[in-house]
Amino acid sequence: MMNTAELLKRESFIELGARERARSLLDPGSFRELIGPFDRLTSPWLAAQGVVTQADDGVVVARGRIAGQPAVVLAIEGAYQGGSMGEVGGAKIAGALELAAEDNRRGIPTRAVILFETGGVRLQEANLGLAAIAEIHAAIADLRRYQPVIGIVAGTVGCFGGMSIAAGLCSYLIVTREARLGLNGPQVIEQEAGIEEYDSRDRPFIWSITGGEQRFASKLVDAYLEDDVGAMRASVHEFIRMGAPARHRSDREADFLACMERVDAAEQARPETVRAIYQKGL
Amino acid sequence: MEQLNFTFPALDPASGRALAGVVGSGDLEVLAEPGAAGTTTVSVTTSVTGMGRVWEAVLTRVLAATPLPATKIEINDFGATPGVVRMRIEQAFEELTGSGREA
């Protein structure tokens, strides 16, 4: 797998910024950005707190086509404020998803791809960020009745907090080895549970629990890919071809609860135990 | 956080607009748009205070050394070094004047 020639042929998806990631997934020439950086819809809350704003608030809304069909790609820029969701960025994602659902009700089969690279809510915008995330959840649940909503967690930020719930609501989830997916970030868990249970600086341990490979082996995501633009595009096309699943992962709460019942809380959770429980129950 | 403004003599207005960089750690975002003929304006918002003279020196070196199209430049900076500042501005001008697709 670590073949040098093959590695050099690959075009890294992780190394791309949000805008280029969105562009790479859309059919060539079809990219059109909505509420772009020159519209300067920036966070009204950050400047007052001494934080420099970014002209697009760290979210790219890209309209275009995927496999010839109308699509919208929502890409979060992980390099800006940890990809945190504020009022503006959150509203851009929620609004685009709501319009995509509206399109479908009018007979236009717009589908959505969300590129998660986020630690969750932007703490400086508190409740407004949380409200926006709730709107994103509702909009995904609405849109996925018509079209598959595809989530991608490529890395290196990963996807945490309320946005991990958004990822869990997606019809299909794609990850790489660099990706991490979890409700709480490692430092939060360490602070709450203690360093003996969860050492946030132990990177191999963190990835063994929340990393892309583990999440795929635990059936919590649907595709585990190499860091390659071509592979990413092919996987998105494949899931779009499959259409929305009859039953979404998030509709299987009974199966998840049954899995939870098999957890022995007296024992420190190990990656193999987690895999075994989910492989049996999902 | 600090806000700084500069003006430099320039040529005719630039013909398009360009975006380079992100407001990430040690990086900055440069937005360039057509300016009024003869003048380039730069508005800098930076997370690092007290570096006005360094900004002036770096921008003078980049914008006053060779005649460039008149541009309205907005910079949102998150602690970029002068080298990174220079490269990002040059990247924006390359997109403006070169084959440059619109951001």
How would you explain this protein's 3D organization?
The complex is a heterodimer of chains A (282) and B (103). Chain A has 282 residues and is an alpha/beta fold. Chain A has one domain (4-181, 221-250): 2-enoyl-CoA Hydratase, Chain A, domain 1 (Alpha-Beta Complex). Chain A has helices spanning 4-9, 18-25, 87-105, 126-143, 162-169, 186-193, 203-210, 212-217, 229-242, 253-261, 271-281, and strands at residues 32-34, 59-66, 69-76, 111-115, 149-153, 172-176, 223-225. In chain A, helix 3 packs parallel to helix 4, helix 4 (126-143) runs parallel beside helix 5 (162-169) and helix 10 (253-261) crosses helix 11 (271-281). The two termini of chain A are 29 Å apart. The model of chain A has no long low-confidence stretch (mean pLDDT 96). Chain B has a single domain (2-97), classed as 2-Layer Sandwich (Ribosomal Protein S5, domain 2). Chain B has helices at residues 52-63, 82-97; strands spanning 2-9, 18-20, 28-34, 39-46, 71-77. In chain B, helix 1 packs parallel to helix 2 (82-97). Chain B is built from 2 helices and 5 strands; from the N terminus they run E-E-E-E-H-E-H. Chains A and B meet through loops of A and strand 3 and strand 5 of B.
